[in-house]
Amino acid sequence: MGVRLESRPACFQSPFSQPLPFATSFPDSHAHVSPQKQRLEGLVWQPLCSLAKALLGPQNLIKKRLDKLLDFERVEEKLLEVGSVTYQEEAARHTYQALNSLLVAELPQFNQLVMQWLGQILCTFVTLQRDLAKQVLQRAEGSMAQVRPLRLGHLWGVARQGPAAPSASCV
After folding, report:
1. How many CB atoms lie within 10 A of CB 10?
2. Is the dihedral of CA 5, 7, 9, 10 positive or negative?
3. pLDDT tens digits, the chain, 171 residues: what are they?
4. What residues have CB less than 8 Å from 41, skipping those under 6 apart?
C-alpha cells in the first residue's frame, strides 16, 4: 500500500575502503589511484552521504503524516456518524491538516533542491571519470612510446625460415 522509507542512509561505510583489485598489478599505480580515490570520496561520496542524511527529515515527516492520517480518518468517520468529536480528537484532526499542508507546500521545493544537488553530484562524478580516462590514456601513450618497435627485418627473417621440417619419426 505505502512506500517503505529507510530510517537511515546507507553510506556509513565508504565503498572505497577496500583496496582496488588492479592496484597491485601495475607498478606505482597506487600513487595515481589514491588522489583520484580521495577526490571521488570528497567530491561525490561525502555529498551523497550528506544528501541521504538531508532526506531523513522529510522522510520522518512523511511517516508521521501517514500515522496522523489514520487518526484523521478515524476522527472524520466519527464526525460523520456522531456529529461531534472530543477536544483531543479535534486537535489530532488539526495536527494532521497542518502537517499535510506543510508537506504539500514545502516538499516540491525540497524535491527540486534535491534534484539540483543530485545533478551537481552526477556532473562532478562524470568530470572525475573523464579526468581519470585522460590520465589513463596519457599513461598508456607514455608506456607505448617506451616500447621499442620491432625491426621489420627481424620479422622477415622469421617468415623466411618457414615452419620447421617434419621429423623422420613422424613420416
Report:
1. 9
2. negative
3. 444 444 444 554 555 555 544 444 455 555 556 888 999 999 999 999 999 999 999 999 999 999 999 999 999 999 999 989 999 999 999 999 999 999 999 999 999 999 999 999 999 999 999 999 999 999 888 887 777 565 555 555 555 555 555 554 443
4. 14, 16
